[in-house]
Amino acid sequence: MSAHRRMAYNRRPTLRQWKKMSGYAGRRVIARGQKTVLVKYDIPCDNPDVDGNTLLFFSDLHWQGDPVMAEDIRRFIAEHQPDEVIFGGDLVSFSCHVESALALMDEISRGHQALAVPGNWDLRRSWFSVDKWRTLLRRSGFDLLINQEKIINNIRFWGADDFKLGAPDYVPPLSEQFSVVISHNPDAVVDMEKDYDSIDLVLCGHTHAGQIRIPGLGALKTSSLYWRKFDYGHYIHEYTGTHMIVTSGLGTTGIDFRFWCKPEMVLINLCYSH
Ligand SMILES: [Fe+2]
User: Fold this and answer.
1) Running DSSP on this structure, what letter comes out for residue 11?
2) Whether the Cβ atoms of residue 211 and residue 147 lie closer than 8 Å to each other
3) String of b and e for 172-184 (b: at least 16 CB within 10 Å)?
């Protein structure tokens, strides 16, 4: 048995504790008609201070200069004016698009609190060091968090290093706060199991929801140790109540093609419940 398969096998009890609440079924991908969709989630919180807070989350941009997608992104932000904008990593696949991607990121962050985490495609680009990425994203209004926290609007955000090419090392918050973990790859979250009780919400990308989905069958390939377990959607941990959202992202890798798997952004509304 390979090391990867052994790891997946050993993690079966943890994987079973994550229940999928909603996935790709019911998304009515044909009926929506637009190129990029905005998927909305209401996430309960037990802290009245963060009631009504809205987070716009997007990941896996793999930017290639698509003007229709850029217009969709601008429209979503203008219509919803989120309190925080969060990028889940994988800015570009090719260096020729870095400049236009950063210009778009600058537009996206303008007037908002903006955070980012690295994706595997960001770290594998040897032409940019991590410090260079941090500087470029900072100029475009995004704070890059790599195993770091930032508190915004009474919410503790903790950004993970990439699972494949970095070393995620989660540190729980010191005080009780609504706590959001941003991790490019959901596989990293499985390794945080002993700290789930300190995490209210996890935001992930990386899987592209398979990028090519077979109607009635779903994703065939997800670039995850756990295959389709965390392919896409809204999950809740059955013991701690931690929510996890895995987005299909916006761009493509490998072949520049999506099937039954639309590019999306995610709008999360925190709702006080007691
Ligand atoms: Fe990606």
Assistant:
1) T
2) no
3) beeeebbbbbbbb
β-sheet bridge partners, residue 58: 87
Calpha distance 249→59 (Å, rounded):
5
Token digits for 123? 């770290």
Instruction: Please check whether residue 21 is in contact with residue 234, taking contact to mean a CB–CB distance below 8 angstroms.
Output: yes
CA–CA distance, 228 with 74 (Å, rounded to integer) = 31
- The rounded Å distance from CA 248 to ligand 1 centre is 9
User: What pLDDT score was predicted for residue 140?
Assistant: 98
The DSSP bridge pattern shows strands 37-45 and 264-272 to be: parallel
Cα distances from 216 to residues 34, 149, 204, 213, in angstroms, run 22, 40, 24, 9
Question: How many angstroms does the Cα of residue 273 sit away from the middle of ligand 1?
Answer: 34
Specify the pTM.
Answer: 0.95
Please list the ranges in the chain whose pLDDT falls under 70.
1, 26, 28-33, 126-127
Domain count within the chain: 1
From the CA of 15, how far away is ligand 1's center (Å)? 22
**What per-residue confidence (pLDDT) applies to 68?**
93
Q: Phi/psi class of residue 229: alpha, beta or left (left: φ > 0; alpha: ψ in -120 to 50)?
A: alpha
Q: State the distance from the centre of ligand 1 to the C-alpha of 125, rounded, in angstroms.
A: 13
The Å distance, Cα 121 to ligand 1 centre, comes to: 7
- pLDDT of 59 reads 97
- Cα of 265 to ligand 1 centre, how many Å? 14
Residue 104's domain is classified under what CATH number?
3.60.21.10
Q: Domain of 155?
A: 3-272
